[in-house]
Amino acid sequence: MEQTTLTTKGMHCGGCASRIEQALGHLDGVRQVKADHTSQQVELAFDEATLDEATIRSRIEALGFEVV
Fold it and tell me: Which of 42, 29, 41 is nearest to 1 (CA)?
């Protein structure tokens, strides 16, 4: 199980955080996800045998947020 924290730009409210949580929560291999618009961070626990960080970053960016 891999755990990572990604810093993002563009989350303005709880709704933005919820969009990220829902999108990542549907990816195979994601065990836990928490997005916080105040800190601009996304905390994840995922199975690295099923999913890689590049895919997670791409999904966040597809929603219109920047991963820094």
Answer: 29
